[in-house]
Amino acid sequence: MKLKTLIAISAYIVIATTTATSQTQVSRVLSHAPTKTLVERLGYPADTKLLIVHADDLGMAHSINRASIKGLETGLVSSASIMIPCSWLPEIAAYARSHPDADLGLHLTLTSEWGLYRWGPVLGKEQVPSLLDRDGYLYLTETEAAAHIDPKEAEAEIRAQIARARALGIQPTHLDSHMGTLYQNQALFETLFRVAHDNKLLIRVSKEWFATAPFLPSLMGPDDVAVNTIISIEPSVTADGWSKFYGDAIKNLQPGITEMIVHLAYDDEEMKGVTSAHPNWGSEWRQRDFQFVTSEAFRKLLKDNNVKLVTWREVGKLMKKAGQ
Amino acid sequence: MKLKTLIAISAYIVIATTTATSQTQVSRVLSHAPTKTLVERLGYPADTKLLIVHADDLGMAHSINRASIKGLETGLVSSASIMIPCSWLPEIAAYARSHPDADLGLHLTLTSEWGLYRWGPVLGKEQVPSLLDRDGYLYLTETEAAAHIDPKEAEAEIRAQIARARALGIQPTHLDSHMGTLYQNQALFETLFRVAHDNKLLIRVSKEWFATAPFLPSLMGPDDVAVNTIISIEPSVTADGWSKFYGDAIKNLQPGITEMIVHLAYDDEEMKGVTSAHPNWGSEWRQRDFQFVTSEAFRKLLKDNNVKLVTWREVGKLMKKAGQ
Question: Predicted ipTM?
């Protein structure tokens, strides 16, 4: 999920005046427990800095699966999410079945962003025509997708993605949205929350988004959770800026839960091919992310700054969600 | 396409007594032109040994696309065919659009044989339920597929594959069947011929098959062509047996048209991953095929044995087929 997308949400959201009702909702969500904070309810002192290190895009490519599994197995990546329509899904589903404790959610997918390597929906194209571009694939960008998608078809498709995941033995611990497509407007956000609530699953939501999506707190139920902030390195960061970006981000963490989104892959022929028509989010950039978050330097950075890794499963268990 | 599959066709074919009618058909097909042989009509002396060197499985993986394109560009691979349901199709469709003279057909796909990397049909799953296994993908093997497929649904799916290819700018010169699924029984053969005739396309057919599929000549029209024989190296051939296998095969070629099916890929991480759950047709085996058919040794072998490479396009043009 792209930070730029998150920040740009406002462009697609119907800006509403913050009402008394949504203010109340914000207060209710932000201070869910009257006496204890979420961090305390998770068993930590209130000033603890909790971090979900989350790998996106599993199932999309073999290179991503290999790097992300290695990331999870270092213990430095705490969570990840899976793209159900992609052809490498069976590999990651097999991993999920053999590692039932791995914290795996669904990276709900309504876009297919690479020029030479693409996928369609889980549902038949006749059932969800508004999700498809003229070549019969999911749209290349989240903005094109949001401009064309009928929310009813998006809802049918994401319900089908969840059903398919469960049929393959994946018990998702949370949901998020590939390229933020489901965060592009209020109707899609509502769709996402309705499906998440019906399935008793947490959604990746950040309190940072409330300013540009003022309706958001009103969609959240008492058992939903918003993280304080989301950290995601930009494609524009050059190789020598990597340590500084993550170093600064970790040193500046605040008490509460933060999510750090990483995109792990190897700079191999497959990944070069996947990302060849795409200047950003490329294979070299993904390998640098992999190298950093699996490094002893990252382990030391977390330790020196007294950061504790946490999973969506732990949070979901507390909130009595499914998949635990 | 597997030679083993071709040889094993008889197991799935309703063996019929060769009738006078089919004998007549055989004669008509085998000696189509009363005065000139097919080889002569293509502009060669009657005793010329013509060879179509054909790469299968394009579109299935980036590794296969890279190796097969390199094979085509050496001039030692004369023809290839594309799998439409696979995610790397856009890469090979882009190549087809920018190389309109490349001899590219469709490797009609009704199976998805790798354990960890899979695909479904082009049509919606609701339209072709008999094509799907319990995980919602095309069947793993050609025998399972043939046992479950409703030929009407197979027909709808292969028509959709042809339409999709054309919509993406591929002008196919011929058709064949991935893993020989459409060669598994008479009903599927009939489906294939009906679709090929409606689309004015040649089909890969070998005269060798007539013994075990006696109905086959009766399905062929006056503008269809059967090659003399098909050469395809078995997965059981070890690395040191490669040159001998192809050396013997080329030295033993007979006048007329022979097709040599090759499976080109690199032994890279992607292809190791694709073929990991599959002992045969693996990435090392495919790289050996690539190395041999793009070698100067192969070029010399063809020259020394006076073998001329030919394409499906040349044959199709003669037979007034489409895509020329």
Answer: 0.88
